Amino acid sequence: MAPVLKVAVIGAGVSGLATAQALKTEGHQVVVYEKSDQLGGTWVYNPQVESDPLGLDPDREIIHSSLYYSLHTNLPYQLMGFSDYPFAIRKYSDSSVFPGHEEVLDFLNEFAREFGLVKLIRFKTEVVRVERVGLRNDQWVVESRADKVSSDEVFDAVVVCNGHYTQPSLADFPGIEKWPGKQMHSHNYRVPEPFQDQIVVVIGDGPSAIDISLEISKVAKEVHLSSKSPDVKIRKLDCVDSMWQHSKIDRVDGNGEVIFQECASVHAYHPPLYRYQYYFPFLKTEEIVAVDDSRVGPLYKHIFSPQLAPNLSFVGLPYNSTPVFLTIDLQAKWIANVLSGKTLLPSEEEMLANIQEHYRYMDDKGIPKQYTHNLGHEFVYSDWLASQLGLTGADEQTRSVLKRYSKFVVEKGLGRCREWRLDSVLQEHES
Length: 431
Ligand code: FAD
Prior knowledge:
By secondary structure, this protein is of the alpha/beta class. The chain has 8 helices and 20 strands. The protein has helices spanning about 15-25, 100-115, 205-215, 325-340, 350-365, 380-390, 395-410, 425-430; strands spanning about 5-10, 30-35, 120, 125-135, 140-145, 150-155, 155-160, 170, 200-205, 220-225, 235, 245, 250, 255-260, 265, 275, 285, 290, 295, 310-315.
């Protein structure tokens, strides 16, 4: 008979919910800690922003979600479901291909209700310490705080699902300490109005940077989008009146100038928006698991620390892991199966060797450490997880949707991604 373990799940976002469902299905005893008063994590829109727009002040009240008011998913809804719980858009009022954030939250609430997960969640309970205990060091104490009262509880295993789009990571350009303009991290962006008539530099070429730039361009005087790549040539974007694309920022100066690597410069008032970092302030592993330049490691398959497996695991670390929900779901199921003993992990040495091989591959290809958890929109990883579970992974239609959608985005650009329609793919499958 499979062992029944007492498992703590930290966070009730997509990762925490998928994990709770998988663990519950395997018969484990689950406690989900959630510091806010509702489930959904990132998908709970909060109009409030933090007191420090850059997120540097350690005493600021932390707002978890980085959603902006107008956000619609950047993936078609067919890519937003779990493996056994598709995102059934027909139930919702908005029948567009790209649901608004409220609909995603509805979907998650429905998922939690359907699988009886809500009663497993301890809301308004923040985990402040997770540390190994026990005679053989094989259990974990979870210290949590609710209403300023601390309590400890011991678990057989802990799954960390605390998200990684909250803690800002700031770019460090020469001259930034003297630069007089206003700075903001996109974590604190909600609506475009504060940028009325400003000259704005937005850093990045991911979906949020593009979305925010397009939205700001409707009210700002000029928007300059700075790519991560040094090779981008300056160009004015055809579809928008007041928006330019540039290469990386080279430096900024005390007169408010922002100088790009292609040598162009703008006098910007209200720049830049930055990246995020992985952050586990509660996790005490004596550096067995550490964050180094956005690499959380060493972790086997982005999930298990070889030395602490299987009792400590992480869900949701990969990014560009499209379809995100499906990947998270398969990670959760794999963890649940491993904890039940249904699926065996390789030995500690083998897991470490696998991780070293991955790091060597990245070095050989010249891929910087910070991209360790970048999966690059392919099914390789989720297919591997599925194979561990005896599943086939994404179905043919999901694969087809992702392939067509990715092609469309490459051809038209991220800025036009929401013009994509499914009809052509469906027709192809029906014929
Ligand atoms: P989160 O959603 O961040 O959930 C983490 C949870 O942990 C939160 O509820 C938090 O309160 C809780 N928590 C944190 N620390 C503690 C603690 N110490 N104690 C107790 N609780 C704690 N994905 C898509 O698939 N499609 C999209 O279109 C898409 N758009 C996105 C747009 C933006 C702006 C962002 C930021 C992300 C987007 N994503 C999108 C990715 C998104 O992050 C994932 O879809 C998903 O929400 C990740 O879920 P998670 O559970 O890992 O993390």
